[in-house]
Each structure stands twice: as C-alpha cells, then as structure tokens.
Structure to design on (484 residues):
C-alpha cells in the first residue's frame, strides 16, 4: 500500500508518450507539481515507498530518458520567470523548470531594456529544464551547449531539499549539473546569462551541393557568421542523381540595421507555416512513407515549399531569427544526431555530408528511400558539461552536430541511421545527442561505456554525493553506460 506524506497533484492518466510517440511510458503515478514544495513532497514519497523518479518537461526527447515504471514527474506547470541584474553577471533570467523558451523570450523582450539569449534551440516550444538536462544546443558559431550559458541552477536532490549549483560555488559540481540527464534530481529552476537585444541578418543561399561542400568554403562561412546551419534535402531536383542537388545554407550575421519585418508579419507568417506543415506536408509525408518510391517527386515539390526557405535577406530581432522554424512539433519525425570534433581544415565535415549524398544515391538505385526530410549540421564550440556530446577540456575545440531526420515510420530508417552513426563513431569517436534517437544503434551501449569513461567518473562523484541510493537512476540504457 502506497504511503503519502501529502496528497500530491497528479493525473488520472496512466500512459504518457513523447511528442513523436517513439517512447510510451506506463508509470505507477504521474505527478504534475505546481510548486517547489510539491516537488520536494514527490521525492519524500519516493523515499518512503522505495520508488524511482524520472521527469519530463515538454516531452520532445526521442530517447527513453524519461521512461520509468515508478514515479513520473511532469514539470510543465512550473513556469515562473524573473529577470534580474547583478554586478557580477550583468543581466540574467531565472526560469522555473517548465517555462517554455517562448515564455522566456517574451519576458526578455518586454524587459526594460529589452534582452535576448545569446544562443538557443531553433524551436521555442521546448521547456527550460528539458534543453538543459539533455545538452541541447543552437546554431551559434561561438556558442556551446545552451547549458554553458547557465550561471546557476537549482535541483531538488534525493534528500528532498533544494540545492544550488554554480560555477562560483563549485566548478566541478556545476559541470556535472549543466547536463545531468535527470540523474542528480529534479531541476526546479535555471538561471541564464542574457544580453541586450540584438538584431540578426538572415541569409539563405542554395548553391550546387558539390560546389559548396568544400573545406575552404565551410571554414570561410564559419569565420564570417554569427550562426550557421546547413541543410541537405535529398532529391531536391526531382531525380535520384544527387550530384545535381542544391545545398541550403542558412547564415545569421549580427547587424546594427533595424528589423525589416514586423512582429505582426512574423506572427501571421508563423500561423501560415504551421497550417502548411499540418495540412500539406504531413499528409504528403504519410503518403511518402507508405509508398517510398515517390520520394524524389514529393521531395522536389516540398523543398520548394518549405516555409522557412527565403530568397531574400531579412533582418530580425534575435529571438525571431533564432527561432526561424515554427511548427516542427506538428510533424512526427525520426531524428538522430551525433557530434564529432571538427578538423582544423574542416575536411571531415564536408566529407561526411558528401558521404550522406552518396549513400542516398546508392540506396535510391536499389529502390530504397529511408531519408525523406533532411541531413543537416551545425557547428559550435566545445562544452564544459561532462556529459554534453561536445564536451572537451579545450574550450576552443570546435564540434559539428550532424543530424538526419525522416518522417516517422519510414522504412529503412533504423538501418541508415545506424550506418551513419557507426561511421561517425568509427572515424571520429562521435557521441549522441541524448534527447534524440541513439539507443537502436548496434553496439552503442558498450561503446559509450568506454568512450565516456572519464567523463562518467567525474560526473559520478557528484551524482553519488547527491543521490547515493540512486532514486533518480531508473533508465536501463544509462545504467549500462555507467555501471556495465
């Protein structure tokens, strides 16, 4: 019989799934705390009843990180936000775990003076604790993971009390807490550095892929951009000869020039984008997944209609430029991302994108079309967080986040994503984005157990201090990586 110290805010629902329905969770209880005290009560109840705890924010992770048979905590009702200024850090923003990136943006923009995050994820529906705990990142060239922008964060640990982690208090503990995968406890709040609002010029170009994908060109764009994202949309010329395909280069450059598009125009455009994705892209993708042979034709059509493509330069306020994609959570997708260190001449980045094109052509000639959305990459600086995919002791090291996406349920996805992941592992000791798909890759668990050995040891010192009985350690994949 379950014993409760207090009656907690919970739901009658017995099943939870992530946004893409790639993870189905059937916990004993689903809790939706509204306050810090309720978070503490959940932990106290778990201790009394000998239960494990896992958490979710918005549910945008593809991996099984949130899965549990015991207590499942959804933090989406914790949404308070406060902007403050200090002599030590300048402007900062503190957000409870469930605050969305959209809410954070709105609080910063309405501040006097208006403020902005230096870097952030592309979509704004994610929640603060979700992007922090999984090591999410943006497209900013000189940025690292979003967690590296943290000044501090507060976590309810296994003793049921609130503990603050910060660089000032203990750098080693802070570098464990920056990306904790929920293993230190339940994040209550995060505090980020922010800066005065700035503008970004967004430039889209569509050169021939084989012309643009050269090390010297990549390096030039890296050195001349504030942010950079490069997309390859297969069969964008309508046939299986990918040598004629274009590449989509999205570049952001800081500017003092005023925005060229109003907030009203942006709101209208995003509503239109979401309608296009829901009522046009989704049914066509469903048809394509069912009949893969039509992929070259449908991709040719969809590529020209992608809402976020632009043929003219436009200037946006930072938040609007960073969150240029709207409605991506409408389409159920499979998504795998692995991160590897960039060579000094950028040769490995261009080689891997050309390899993707070659793989897709070879499979298409066999009548197989497992990739019907995009292959893309972003480039960041190394992270200080022990468990971040781009962790490096050298803060000036450069990492490429290499990502492939297809419509959920497309035949052949697991095979092509596994082949690409294992190639990046074999050549560069690449590491996965924790929140995306990686657990299906053959041999991934023993590989991560080995390649992350030093980082895990550093993290484990901190984890064992705050959760000696492993209340928050209820994940088979992580258990094998840490303790196999």
């Amino acid at each position: 019989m379950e014993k409760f110290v207090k009656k907690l805010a919970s739901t009658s629902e017995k099943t939870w799934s992530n946004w893409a329905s790639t993870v189905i969770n059937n916990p004993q209880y689903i809790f939706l705390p509204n306050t810090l005290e309720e978070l503490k009560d959940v932990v106290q109840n778990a201790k009394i009843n000998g239960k494990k705890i896992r958490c979710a924010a918005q549910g945008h992770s593809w991996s099984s990180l949130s899965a549990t048979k015991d207590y499942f905590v959804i933090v989406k009702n914790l949404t308070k936000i406060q902007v403050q200024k200090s002599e030590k850090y300048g402007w900062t923003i503190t957000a409870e775990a469930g605050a969305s990136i959209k809410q954070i943006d709105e609080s910063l923009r309405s501040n006097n003076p208006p403020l902005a995050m230096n870097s952030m994820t592309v979509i704004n529906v994610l929640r603060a604790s979700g992007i922090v705990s999984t090591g999410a990142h943006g497209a900013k060239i000189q940025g690292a993971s979003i967690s590296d922008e943290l000044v501090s964060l507060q976590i309810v640990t296994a003793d049921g009390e609130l503990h603050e982690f910060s660089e000032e208090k203990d750098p080693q503990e802070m570098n464990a807490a920056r990306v904790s995968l929920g293993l230190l406890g339940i994040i209550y709040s995060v505090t980020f550095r922010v800066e005065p609002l700035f503008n970004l010029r967004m430039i889209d170009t569509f050169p021939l892929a084989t012309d643009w994908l050269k090390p010297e060109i990549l390096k030039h764009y890296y050195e001349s951009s504030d942010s950079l994202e490069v997309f390859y949309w297969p069969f964008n010329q309508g046939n299986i000869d990918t040598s004629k395909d274009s590449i989509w280069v999205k570049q952001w450059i800081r500017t003092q020039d005023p925005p060229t598009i109003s907030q009203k125009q942006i709101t209208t455009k995003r509503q239109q984008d979401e309608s296009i994705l829901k009522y046009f892209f989704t049914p066509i993708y469903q048809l394509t997944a069912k009949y893969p042979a039509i992929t070259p034709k449908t991709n040719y059509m969809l590529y020209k209609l992608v809402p976020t493509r632009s043929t003219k330069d436009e200037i946006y306020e930072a938040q609007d430029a960073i969150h240029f994609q709207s409605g991506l959570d409408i389409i159920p997708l499979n998504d795998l991302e692995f991160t590897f260190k960039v060579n000094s001449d950028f040769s490995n980045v261009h080689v891997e994108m050309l390899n993707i094109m070659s793989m897709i052509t070879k499979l298409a000639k066999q009548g197989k079309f497992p990739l019907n959305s995009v292959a893309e990459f972003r480039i960041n600086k190394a992270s200080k967080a022990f468990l971040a995919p781009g962790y490096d002791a050298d803060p000036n090291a450069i990492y490429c986040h290499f990502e492939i996406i297809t419509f959920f349920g497309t035949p052949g996805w697991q095979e092509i994503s596994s082949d690409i992941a294992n190639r990046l592992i074999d050549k560069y000791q690449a590491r996965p984005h924790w929140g995306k798909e990686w657990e299906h890759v053959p041999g991934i668990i023993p590989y991560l157990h080995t390649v992350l050995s030093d980082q895990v040891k550093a993290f484990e010192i901190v984890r064992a201090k705050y959760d000696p009985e492993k209340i928050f350690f209820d994940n088979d994949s992580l258990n094998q990586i840490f303790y196999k």
Notes: The chain has three domains: 16-74, 83-196, 199-442. DSSP finds 14 helices and 20 strands in the chain. The two ends are 33 Å apart (CA to CA). The longest strand covers residues 398-407.
